[in-house]
Amino acid sequence: MSKRKLHSLPLSVLALLGVALAGVSASASASPPAGEKPSSPSSSATSDEVELICHTSDPADCYPKIFQPTHEFQIVHPDQDLPTGLHVRLNIYTGQKEAKINVPDEAVDPSLEGLPVDNSIVIVDPEDSSGSEKQQSQGQPLKPPKNAPAYDPHGKIKEPNMETAEAQDESSAFYKSLAILKKGLDIDQALDMLEEISHDIYYGLKIAEDYDTVRELFCLANSPSIISSSSSSSSSTSPSSGSTSSSSPETTETGGPSEKDLTRSRLAASIISSTVQNNPKALAEITKHWPTLQQDHCTKSKSSKDSGSELEPLQISAFRLLPSLPSSGSPSDSEPIPSIPPSLTKARISAISGLLKSPLIRQSFLAAGGMDHLLQVLLSDASQSQGQGAAEEWENLRRQAGHLILDNFLDADMGAVLGEWPGATGDVQASDKECASRAASRGDGEKEEGQADCWDWHAKQLADRYKKEGKGGEGHWSWELWNKLKEQRKNASSNKKDEL
């Protein structure tokens, strides 16, 4: 048996062999045991991921949900969670919150050294706070502060913006129209312009502030040649008192008002209606004029050539909606009553409805028999010669008159002042038999006017008539009018008994 000889290896070879063995050992220790899966790199990285808040699709706009502080101040977003123990400040220049890692022994900014530090809080009480609290505890309204402007419940009406050429032209045309109307010149174009612009609360107020303009409008809308049968005939024969104004009322060959005269009256009434509609300040201005205006007979009006001491003052003629009966008490072929188109009556009812929002004018309306005039409208019908269209127009007039009564006297939900009508002194109703007898006798003209003491009977007849025709019943304006009237009669009677 041969013997083998052992040879010693050089040191350099031994060193290389050691490095190789070490690498194999490290690889073996890093490999997982049999039966176990190696862990993925993503699972180890997940524990280090940071939840982000992204309001846009741009990744550059994202930021951590939990604020990551550093040793420098950084902006803290409103929806970030702020860890405790940080140094937080508010940047007075940007209004943003900033934070950084808090360093307790951090040196103070040299520019802040020596400045006084005060953590006290000062509470400033309003003047006369004790008095205000006392007023509140007693339920008294608070007094306005000193030098406060006067309270205006209607607010300030701003002037139109005159920067545009259109606004300037409109303003110029408005004031030119006022001048034309007051001078009694060719007023047709002026009335058209004022009727269009009077819906504006600023120009509506300017119309109401000018007494001469208001007077001319009232005289045009309530021309004696239209609402008084006796005046219509006299105006056609009486000569003009030296006036050549084109605004003077004209008459037809039969003595009735001309188409131009009726159109001017309708436009004037529409202007009055638009001026006071939803314009409390304009209504207040007309109320200021009313004590003087109601006494005027329009005999010196640029828009009227009617003259004579028998003409009615505006406190009566302003509320007369239909022509009055002739002096004989009944219409006749020799003395016809002028025909008024429904459009004019509609405009005048609308104007009266707006004016009745003034307590002073409302009292004048009741004193002048205004409810009697409204009853005339409710009882009037279109003649057969006027056709179906006129019948529908008169139907609309009756509804308009009914709503005027409800809104101003009977329905509190619509702003009516209850207790003014019915319930006035001496407002006693005749028996149903008496009222039926009057209605049956048409020759004396009492069915058309003078029926104040039969108001309730006529209201019931009107409601029954519409119900029989299939138009009325509960919810119809005639039904509301009759039931509200009964309710107010009952309340007025109860109040009278309580006073006794």
TrEMBL record:
UniProt keyword annotations, A-Z: Signal
Signal peptide annotation: 1-26
GO molecular function: adenyl-nucleotide exchange factor activity
Compositional bias ranges of the Low complexity kind: 27-45, 226-257, 322-337
Gene3D superfamilies: Leucine-rich Repeat Variant
Keyword Transmembrane listed: no
InterPro entries assigned to the protein according to its UniProt record, in alphabetical order: ARM-like (IPR011989), Hsp70_NEF-Inhibitors (IPR050693)
Entry GO terms, CC: endoplasmic reticulum
Basic and acidic residues bias (residue ranges): 430-454
This protein's record includes keyword Transmembrane: no
Start and end residues of each stretch annotated as Disordered: 27-49, 124-168, 226-264, 322-342, 424-454
Protein name, UniProt field: SIL1
Organism: Neurospora crassa (strain ATCC 24698 / 74-OR23-1A / CBS 708.71 / DSM 1257 / FGSC 987)
High-level lineage: Eukaryota, Fungi, Dikarya, Ascomycota, Pezizomycotina
